[in-house]
Known about the structure:
The protein is globular. A hairpin with a 5-residue loop joins strand 4 (741-746) and strand 5 (752-758). It folds into five domains: 7-208 and 290-406, Up-down Bundle (Na+/H+ antiporter like fold), CATH 1.20.1530; 414-475; 479-622, no CATH class; 629-682; 687-822, Jelly Rolls. The longest helix has 39 residues, at 552-590. It is mostly helical. 73% of the residues lie in helices and 5% in strands. Strands 1-8-3-6 form a four-stranded antiparallel β-sheet. The protein starts with 6 loop residues before the first helix and ends in a 6-residue tail after the last helix. The protein has 33 helices and eight strands.
Amino acid sequence: MLGGFDTVTLVAGVVALLLVAGAVRVVTDCLQFPxxxxxxxxxxxxxxxxxxxxxxxxxxxxxxxxxxxxxFVLIPTLIFEAAFHxxxxxxxxxxxxVLTLAVPAAMLSSFVVATIVWLVSPFNFxxxxxxxxxxxxxxxxxxxAIFRKIGAPARLTMLVEGESLLNDATxxxxxxxxxxxxxxxxxxxxxxxxxxxEFGMVFLGGAxxxxxxxxxxxxxxxxxxxxxxxxxxLTSILxxxxxxxxxxxxxxxxxxxVVIAGLVMADWGRTKMSPHDEEHVEHFWHFASNAxxxxxxxxxxxxxxxxxxxxxxxxxxWVVVALLVSRAVAVFGLAPLMxxxxxxxxxxFAYQIVVYWGGLRGGIAxxxxxxxxxxxxxxxxxxxVMGSVLFTLVVQGMTMERLVRWLGLDKPALAxxxxxxxxxxxxxxxxxxxxxxxxxxxxxSQRIGEDLERKLATDIGRVxxxxxxxxxxxxxxxxxxxxxxxxxxxxxxxxxxxxxxKGHLSESTYRDLAAAVQMQADAVRDGATSxxxxxxxxxxxxxxxxxxxAPAAMADRPRQGYIAADYKRAWGEFQAATYILGxxxxxxxxxxTPPEIVAEVCTLYLRWQANARQQLDATxxxxxxxxxxxxxxxxxxxxxxxxxxxxxxxxxxxxxPPGIADDLVRELTAASxxxxxGSVAPLQIxxxxxxxxxxxxxxxxxxxxxxxAGVLVPRSVPAGQVIVAQxxxxxxxxxxxRGVVRVVSTDAKGGEHDLATLVAGNFFGEMALLTNxxxxxxxxxxxxxxxxxxxxxxxxxxxxxxxxxxxxxxxANRDRRKSRDAQPEPAV
Length: 828
């Protein structure tokens, strides 16, 4: 027994809800009626009938069991699925408006609702604030379904959906705070300040729980690659356990915890899943969210009691007025302030209207209010909240599509209309080209083939004409170039994803390249036609600065890792540029892009390809062992992939038993996984090999030679990094093992002058080593570089035993000083 109800009855009720939801889906698809609204109306009808025929069954919807089912089963499912399918990059771009709508706007709306209801009702202000908090959460499911149907702008969808993701937490936390105030029996300044602190702690604490849980689950998934069952189970544990631990265990915000967990898995977590795992996880959560949504909307309708609404129609009317007024104050009042937030584009008035009218209420409000049965106002609040939810879903939900169309927001953007016409044209041409082959196969007669060719020719002419009209009336030359660039960058991003999935790119390299392409795509959408390419993040630059002051023993391996990472990124960029250059003619032909625009984009990619090739060649020249090792790993991965494809093809054809094929594929996958990444050991060079290259040391006696080689400390520096800076004091000499170093000086006016270029076997810093004078020039790595450092303390110890070593270095210093005086090249 659960809450006085037989378990079988509850299970039968759940099955019945799913059965009704399936039947309603079929009917609404035929009638083109909003599915969510239909579910609520059917739920109302079933509830009224059940209350007359089987009142005990109908009472389930008004019990804490229903509230717990909504809060701990349905809500985590819906929130995690929404977060997991969120476009994280688009959310980042609109983060400030979303946060403003989710937190300050929700608080303001709660206060306005409370004030209006307090003026016209017998409730005290604390109870009215509780009602306002309950009604501050929004449910975008019905609205987003309409947006997807009519093709509303992506940013508008993000504003509505992103607000709902976070303001559910605001509603729950505010309601919890107000319940504690009501229990205390007093409401004053101390309660307010305590509530603000509690709100912040609950929010931030929930976010921390969600982030930690997602990182842990993502790590576990990465350890069981290509296991769809385990990946699905782990994401399920993440959604429900995170909510329970945060909400009940730690008294934090379970909603925020699940939102953050879902967002982390949507971005970082996806790279931990194999394509097979990701596909199954996607399917599971798609089904789970659809089932949860259907049950939720039916429960909402089932819980509404028309008789209670009619009995309180006056107060209910005021609550509806309060909802509409508070939403208007929150959206239209805060919208001008949102435009002043950092990195935030203003929200148009049409968008504001849709966000205002799209503030539907739903599951969170129902879950909170059903838990208030023990309070004196509980029954009245249930009626008012149920009625408000019903009003927003039916009235606002049924008029949303008409409003969006009236505002003209259903009209696709110019880029989308061009892409649609180009895609249609490409598909029609492909279909026309396939007719001779199909006819030759005897699939239809000559006459039917000719009829189809004439019809397709007519359609091709029509779509071509529409495309030309768009080009001549609305599309400028710059816009057309940006469209081609967007297509190329999208293809490049897809290539990086494919290379990562096949193991050719490490996770960090893939994320760097994908982020760089996204930044370029954003720049193109903002109007750039020659976007800059960069993959060096601010965090990387900060870490490099820290490594410059870190002990050499600690810093060298990260520096070697940077050299390896730069090579892998250059390899990825080269592959992408080569692919785009080979495919751009097809893209241009399919989309009828003018040749001169194609040539400009080709020039851009040729430059990127040349830059990547230059970096690859420089690394291959300076670190041939490392590049050879990388190429060997690539070859082995390609062989493993070819074997995997062959075995899977034979398994599908029935030539290999499924069990044997699965075992072989699993072994090959494990082997491919071990071939990812690569050792940085080939970046190093032995000290003895280096000293033999240096003219000043190659004639050193064998005993001294061995001693000096033993005290040299290896260092690695990525291209572009400063090794020593002019004006700083140093205490060591650097011997270049591999790479190229540029020596420059800065004059009194700040101008830089090239003084020398040093290569493998050269050294610099002898003056600082011998005389402790400030460095007279800056040395910067031109290519990835390996060197060895000779420190003053080690040199002095050895020089005391082997005076010839000091003499050789002093002679080299005198020669360089003479050379400097002649052309001027400083000793550094």
